[in-house]
Design brief:
about 425 residues, alpha/beta, seven-stranded mixed sheet, 15 strands
């Protein structure tokens, strides 16, 4: 296939293999990214991409769907077993579309939704004004406590009771602490609200039993499949039988047409892998690595939002150094360390600049790195930041990063020649 692509479209071939090299020889610390297994990659690159399959298994609008029905049913049943859900819709193309369908299944446009403020770790689909969630609905927000930088239950309760939303969205994009889903769902339900739990970041932790579960308490749960679940890029909705009909009709025909059956097959492979004991061990290592990396950063004089992490990510606050997330992201990338700039609570900077960077351990843990490597990485990050991005230090660390990556090879079967 490499030879075919190189001969047909050498420009795309070059871009793909340059990206493979970037992933191989750099440290991927973006908390929302991971590396799939070669089995997941194999499922993605199959002729299933050729098949139109509007509808659901056994209820398609096209003929010739017997084998995509088979693979999609496997994905559904494996997702249900993995999370203990009564129903799973595996067709959403992304987490954002999963959230859109979940909201529409529970409330009408114009209803009031309550989600975590974007600056405090929330996601754009949780009520940001320029997003569908802020344009289709009346959006209000809850925040982390200004001192602890954590969600405090009493403050959350006050916001819920004073706003009386129709829907509460739980979950985050950049919150380093565990969620008390049981208590927060109960408070929302007592106030007459429905609840959507967006577990895109912690889905793998929940599946492995290493984070409090939301499935028994939320009305609908949404997730992506490519972060801590280590699957292909895509989304999924989990719910009870009571919401099955509304969820399914909002994905199709409400928001999407034909599902991406090659991606769904790859989701099925990822769910199969996530049911293994090896995956549980992996998730425990992700969390241990995150705690070690956070402790190393703090020991080296770097400030973290809320003072640490309970999960797979941490938020570096650069305000003590009077630096920006944008500048830090660029400097770290120059050293082969990929992160993303991110808002921190009370951030004075604009979203394209920010005062923080988000760091996570899923991808480096997938490569086999452990706590000793996290100590090295934490030291490198701190040295670059505290040097205020000294060019000589960045160059030296860049060489050390490449040497470390060569010890933990990524996709050795994929050639770049």
């Amino acid at each position: 296939m490499n030879d075919i692509l190189r001969s047909v479209d050498p420009e795309i071939y070059k871009a793909i293999h340059a990206e493979i090299d970037r992933q191989r020889y750099g440290l991927e610390l973006i908390a929302s990214e991971n590396f799939t297994s070669q089995a997941v990659l194999a499922a993605l690159g199959t002729p299933l991409t050729n098949k139109y399959a509007e509808g659901y298994p056994g209820r398609r609008y096209y003929g010739g769907c017997e084998w995509v029905d088979c693979s999609e049913t496997l994905a559904i049943e494996r997702a249900k077993a993995l999370f203990g859900a009564e129903h799973a819709n595996v067709q959403p193309h992304s987490g954002s579309q999963a959230n859109m369908a979940a909201y529409m299944a529970l409330i009408e446009p114009g209803a009031k939704i309550l989600g975590l403020n974007l600056d405090h770790g929330g996601h754009l689909t949780h009520g940001l004004g320029v997003n569908f969630s802020g344009r289709w609905f009346e959006a209000v927000s809850y925040q982390v406590n200004t001192e602890t930088q954590r969600i405090e239950i009493d403050e959350y309760r006050q916001v819920v009771e004073s706003n009386r939303p129709d829907l509460v969205v739980l979950g985050a994009s950049a919150y380093p602490r565990a969620w008390d889903f049981e208590t927060m769902c109960a408070i929302a339900h007592e106030a007459g609200a429905k609840v959507v739990s967006d577990i895109a970041h912690v889905a793998g932790l929940i599946a492995a039993g290493e984070h409090p579960d939301c499935l028994p308490y939320a009305d609908i749960t949404t997730t992506t499949t490519h972060k801590t679940l280590r699957g292909p890029r895509g989304g999924m909705i989990l719910c009870s039988e009571a919401h099955k009909k509304d969820v399914d009709r909002w994905i199709f025909p409400g928001l999407q047409g034909g599902p991406l059956e090659h991606v769904i097959a790859a989701k099925a492979v990822a769910f199969h892998e996530a049911q293994s004991e090896d995956f549980k061990v992996y998730i425990r290592k992700v969390i241990a690595n995150a705690k070690t990396l956070a402790a190393t950063l703090i020991e080296n004089g770097i400030s973290l939002v809320s003072g640490g992490t309970d999960n797979h990510l941490m938020m570096i606050d650069l305000r003590p150094q009077e630096l920006t997330g944008k500048a830090a992201q660029t400097a770290l990338e120059d050293a082969g360390i990929t992160t993303n700039k991110n808002m921190v609570p009370g951030d004075p900077q604009k979203p394209m600049v920010t005062s923080g960077i988000r760091v996570g351990t899923p991808a480096v843990t997938t490569r086999g790195m452990g706590e000793e490597e996290m100590k090295k990485i934490g030291g490198w990050i701190a040295e670059i930041i505290l040097s205020e991005f000294d060019a000589g230090i960045i160059k030296r660390i860049g060489g050390e990063v490449r040497q470390l990556c060569e010890v933990f090879p990524l996709y050795p079967g994929l050639t770049t020649s």
